[in-house]
Task: inverse folding
């Protein structure tokens, strides 16, 4: 069965209409998203494929060789344009075609397009070699039309087109190896369809076998396949844009409800954006744009500090400034800001958040005032306790001067020294301003010197302090001070009898810090020493009982070292 040529021309016209419709859609998409160059390239593919199909429809209707040349030239031009647009599309999607290669290909194939349009004679199409083509279809029927043989320039054009397709296949394979396997596989599939169709047409035109030309169908397949793929991407992008719009709405709602003021300024300190929350300070955000960031702050020194910190460290955190509100009231604010850098690392501005800390500053002021009141109260308490202890010491002294028995007199004197040792701690607390701890090394120095005066041993006993700068809390300082008072008193009373002349009298007090947060207090004299059978735990004297109870209260240990004189060592935890 023979099909008339005019009826068969309807098929490529329909194909051209499909390709042209796709080109309109892609052009509209490109107009909206101009950043994607390959979108415009695909639109050119669709337009060129539509023109090629129309040229095929015209070719199927000619009956003379001279008439076929016009349509053959149009076919060559549109086919060349389609290949160039497809190469542009591949280059844009993969990003792996050097710019120099892209420009060279466009220049060479553009020259061939000009040759097809303007070079007459047999260089492009040889009129002296007409040919009648019969195309058989798989389902039956055939098409008969007239053509002429291609000239050397056209043959070279087809040969370079084949080489260009081979280069595109190589580019896509490289793109596949970079990890973009899914996209590369689809591009490889599309390009392979066109390449195989071109090989088929070359074989049919060279009469290697009887068949039909498939390039026009291959380009339609490309348009449909890539169009569907692009539609899926556009649908996905539309979904992403909708999600972005929803996210932007939520962000805007949160941003506008934010009480802190967000601002962005350029490198000259000119405001480029201010959040609506600045209205709480009495300012219209639209009127602040284009004005210096220091407009609503008289604290010029503070802004200079901000600028210096941004230049030095790149950011500032919790920097306190003063801001003048729209009602001329000064507001305390806290600034957090950081530099904005471009892709080259150059500072283009800074952005930050201003927070009203008026309530915080007021609370800090009230707290400081309360602390000052409590400090004064504690100081007064320690002062009164010290005075009361001194009154007790004075009362004991009045009793002491009325007593004539030496033993009773020593008992009262020991009580006075114990009371004085406690009063001395409260005196140090009152004078230092730190009501939590006492510099115990300095306290021991004053305590022993007072005992030397009380027992009139300043000329006969040399006091050798070896103390570190160690602070103790009042709960540790009072019992430790009483222990030191008792042991030093015993040394001054019993270590050096009146007939002692063997060596110079020395009393050494050592206070050191031990590993494991422990304190060592050692009191040493070089006197007569304790009797051979003396054991602290078995002694029933009041003084030693007091020492043992206080050491136990400290959670420490008491050790007696015998040698030249007597050495008492107390070790206890520091806290």
Result:
């Amino acid at each position: 069965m023979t099909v008339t040529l005019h009826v068969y021309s309807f098929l490529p016209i329909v194909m051209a209409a499909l390709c042209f419709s796709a080109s309109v859609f892609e052009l509209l998409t490109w107009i909206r998203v101009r950043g994607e160059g390959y979108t415009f390239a695909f639109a050119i593919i669709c337009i060129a494929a539509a023109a090629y199909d129309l040229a095929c429809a015209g070719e199927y209707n000619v009956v003379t060789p001279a008439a076929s040349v016009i349509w053959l030239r149009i076919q060559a031009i549109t086919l060349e344009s389609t290949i160039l647009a497809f190469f542009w599309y591949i280059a844009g999607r993969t990003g792996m075609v050097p710019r120099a290669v892209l420009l060279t290909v466009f220049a060479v194939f553009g020259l061939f397009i000009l040759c097809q349009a303007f070079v007459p004679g047999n260089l492009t199409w040889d009129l002296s070699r007409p040919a009648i083509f019969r195309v058989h279809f798989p389902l039956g029927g055939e098409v008969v039309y007239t053509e002429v043989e291609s000239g050397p320039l056209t043959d070279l054009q087809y040969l370079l087109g084949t080489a260009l397709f081979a280069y595109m296949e190589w580019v896509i394979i490289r793109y596949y190896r970079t990890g973009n396997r899914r996209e590369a596989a689809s591009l490889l599939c599309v390009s392979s369809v066109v390449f195989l169709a071109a090989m088929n047409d070359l074989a049919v035109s060279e009469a290697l076998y009887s068949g039909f030309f498939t390039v026009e169908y291959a380009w339609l397949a490309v348009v449909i396949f890539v169009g569907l793929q692009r539609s899926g991407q556009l649908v996905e992008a539309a979904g992403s844009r909708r999600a972005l719009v929803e996210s932007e709405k939520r962000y805007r709602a949160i941003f506008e409800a934010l009480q802190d003021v967000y601002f962005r300024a350029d490198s000259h300190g000119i405001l480029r954006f201010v959040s609506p929350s600045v209205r709480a300070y009495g300012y219209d955000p639209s009127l602040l744009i284009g004005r210096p960031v220091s407009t609503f702050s008289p604290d010029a020194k503070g802004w200079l500090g901000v600028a210096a910190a941004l230049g030095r460290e790149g950011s500032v955190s919790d920097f306190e400034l003063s801001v003048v509100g729209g009602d001329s009231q000064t507001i305390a604010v806290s600034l957090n800001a950081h530099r904005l850098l471009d892709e080259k690392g150059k500072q283009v501005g800074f952005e930050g958040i201003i927070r009203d800390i008026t309530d915080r500053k007021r609370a800090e002021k009230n707290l400081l005032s309360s602390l000052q009141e409590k400090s004064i109260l504690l100081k007064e308490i320690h002062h009164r306790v010290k005075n009361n202890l001194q009154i007790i010491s004075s009362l004991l002294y009045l009793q002491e001067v009325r007593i004539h028995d030496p033993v009773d007199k020593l008992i009262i004197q020991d009580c006075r020294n114990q009371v004085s040792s406690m009063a001395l701690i409260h005196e140090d607390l009152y004078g230092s301003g730190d009501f939590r701890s006492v510099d115990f090394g300095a306290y021991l120095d004053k305590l022993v010197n007072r005992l030397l005066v009380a027992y009139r041993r300043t000329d006969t006993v040399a006091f050798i302090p070896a103390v570190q700068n160690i602070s103790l809390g009042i709960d540790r300082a009072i019992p430790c001070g009483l222990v030191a008072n008792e042991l030093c008193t015993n040394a001054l009373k019993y270590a050096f009898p009146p007939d002692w002349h063997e060596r110079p009298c020395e009393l050494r007090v050592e206070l050191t810090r031990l590993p494991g947060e422990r304190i060592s207090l050692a009191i040493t004299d070089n006197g007569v020493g304790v009797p051979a059978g003396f054991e602290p735990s078995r002694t029933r004297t009041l003084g030693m009982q007091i020492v043992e109870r206080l050491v136990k209260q400290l959670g420490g240990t008491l050790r007696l070292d015998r040698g030249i004189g007597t050495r008492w060592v107390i070790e206890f935890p520091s806290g």
Remarks:
- The radius of gyration is 52 Å.
